[in-house]
């Protein structure tokens, strides 16, 4: 296990879990997410070791973190202290099982993007804002089209060169209901 530092906050991580490796660009991505999260209740889908949840909790948000990887959640429990509810199940399974309301939903899915059932579930939570972090512009575009059909529109888009000198780019998008 190693400790990664982001904006003066420490995170326990290990080689078995995903964690953004570019420590120079990561703070800007965290600031994008935290500056666009509105309201008190935030859902963090594909939460990993709790990177976004940690900073959202520090702002006084009540966070629900959903991550299927038990090792990620074990580390997240070490990285987070209060105001976070942990759910160790797939995002798809959790999405089907809750009808709660969230003010903001943060989603940072794998390259395959969001399952259509997850898009439907997010829409059913009636969030004021959706913050979508993506490493695949093709699946991001596909999923934004799905959210658009439910009345959500892109408001802010920012790209992060997490992998310099490659064709890969990380994108964060804020969507709001019209």
Automatic annotation (TrEMBL):
Its EC number is 2.1.1.189. It holds the Pfam family tRNA_U5-meth_tr. GO terms for biological process: rRNA base methylation. Keywords: Methyltransferase, S-adenosyl-L-methionine, Transferase. It is an enzyme of class 2 (transferase). The gene is rlmCD_48. This is 23S rRNA (Uracil-C(5))-methyltransferase RlmCD. GO terms for molecular function: rRNA (uridine-C5-)-methyltransferase activity.
């Amino acid at each position: 296990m190693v400790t990664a530092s982001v904006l003066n906050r420490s995170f326990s991580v290990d080689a078995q879990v995903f964690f953004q490796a570019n420590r120079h660009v990561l703070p800007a991505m965290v600031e994008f997410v935290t500056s666009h999260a509105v309201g008190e209740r935030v859902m963090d889908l594909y939460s990993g070791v709790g990177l976004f949840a940690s900073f959202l909790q520090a702002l006084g948000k009540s966070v629900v973190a959903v991550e299927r990887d038990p090792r990620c959640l074990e580390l997240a429990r070490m990285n987070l202290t209060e105001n976070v509810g942990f759910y160790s199940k797939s995002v798809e399974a959790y999405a089907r099982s809750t009808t709660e309301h969230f003010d903001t939903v943060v989603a940072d899915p794998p390259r395959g993007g969001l399952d259509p059932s997850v898009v439907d579930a997010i829409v059913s939570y009636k969030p004021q804002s959706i913050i979508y972090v993506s490493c695949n512009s093709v699946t991001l575009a596909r999923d934004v089209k799905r959210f658009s059909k439910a009345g959500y529109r892109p408001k802010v888009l920012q790209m992060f060169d997490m992998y310099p000198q490659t064709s890969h780019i990380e994108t964060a998008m804020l969507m709001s209901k019209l």
